[in-house]
Every structure is written in structure tokens, then in C-alpha cells.
Design brief:
By secondary structure, the protein is of the alpha+beta class. The protein has one domain: PH-domain like, CATH 2.30.29. It has two helices and seven strands, in the order βββαβββαβ. A hairpin with a 5-residue loop joins strand 2 and strand 3. It is globular, with a radius of gyration of 13 Å. The protein starts with a strand and ends with a strand.
Amino acid sequence: MAGKFEISKRKNGEFQFNLKAGNGQVILTSEGYSSRDACNNGIESVRRHAKSITHFDKKTAKDGSPYFALMASNGQSIGKSEMYRSIASRDKGIDSVMRNAGTAKIADLTS
């Protein structure tokens, strides 16, 4: 089953997207966007940047939980992962984003 981008609206009216793996698990969450067009541009940025491991910033939270951020060429964060329990799980999450982003369909849940 292929992954998908789901566009939704936050309580504050901003648009955001989640990239979900084929099993339905969220593997990347975006920042908030002021418009649907900006959100769609964010999705296209994920598609471009997820092709290269060099755009993934592997991080560790204050509590020691590993996570990652997908970074644009200009250094801006495009999206972040959940907190993982292990480095191996985080690295599988990165692999899942790389595999799913390019072919994921878009589901707009705001309509």
C-alpha cells in the first residue's frame, strides 16, 4: 500500500500535512501554513528533498528520544518526525519517508 499526504486544518486556521506510510502511521508532520497553496508547495518540497539522505537532520530531544527533521536546501525545516524509542527506529522512519514521499497521493481533508 502506498503512502499519502493528508492535508488538514489546525484549530488556528493554518493548513498542515502529515505524510503517512502505507500502514497509516504518520512518518512526517509539517509546520503550519497560512494557505492551501503554501501547504501544497511544502508537499512538493518534501518530494524533492526526501530523495537525499543529506536533507535529513538526525536529532535527539532533551529526554534522549531520537527524531529527525527534513530540511530544505536553504536550511529551513520542512517537517519533523515523531519521537522514537531508538536510533534504529528513527532511521527506519527516515527510510520510510524516502520510500513514500515521491509517490504518495494527496488527500485534502479540509474540503
